[in-house]
Amino acid sequence: MNMQNLMQQAQRLQREITKKKEEIDNEIFPGKYEWVEVSFNGKKELLSFKITKEGPINEDDKEMLEDMVLLAIKDSFQKIDKEVQSKLGQYSAMNNLM
C-alpha cells in the first residue's frame, strides 16, 4: 500500500468519525427520575430542566429532590455515553481520533 492511499484512507476515516460525532452532538438525550426531567445534547450541554412535582416542595422533600436531579442527569449522561460507544467505539483503538 502506498503512502497516498494510506493518507486517503486516514482522511476518509477522519470524515466518518467527525460525521458520527456531529450526529451525537446534535442528538437530544432525555434523562428522568421521578419528579425531575432533563435534556442534554451529545456535548453534555444542558438544554432543559423541569421539576414535574405539582404543589409545594416541603423541607423534607428538598434532599430527596436534590438526589433526583443528580439521578436524572446521570440517566441522560449514561444514554450519551452509550450512544458514543455505539457509534464511535469501533474507533477507540485509534488514539487521539475522538
Care to count the β-strands? Answer: 3
pLDDT averaged over residues: 91
- Looking at the overall shape, the CATH architecture is 2-Layer Sandwich
Strand content: 15-25%
| The first-level CATH class name | Alpha Beta
Give structural notes.
This protein is of the alpha+beta class. It has a single domain (3-91), classed as 2-Layer Sandwich (Ybab, Chain: A). 55% of the residues lie in helices and 18% in strands. It has 2 helices and 3 strands. The chain has helices spanning 3-26, 59-88, and strands at 28-33, 36-41, 46-51. It has a 3-stranded antiparallel β-sheet. A hairpin with a 2-residue loop joins strand 1 and strand 2 (36-41). Helix 1 packs antiparallel against helix 2. It starts with a helix and ends in a 10-residue tail after the last helix. The relative contact order is 0.18.
Helix and strand arrangement:
Elements: H1 3-26, E1 28-33, E2 36-41, E3 46-51, H2 59-88
Antiparallel strand pairs: 1-2, 2-3
Helix pairs in contact: 1-2
Outline:
The protein has two helices and three strands, in the order αβββα. It has helices at 3-26, 59-88, and strands at 28-33, 36-41, 46-51.
How would you describe this structure in keywords?
2 helices; 3 strands; three-stranded antiparallel β-sheet; alpha+beta; Ybab, Chain: A; 98 residues
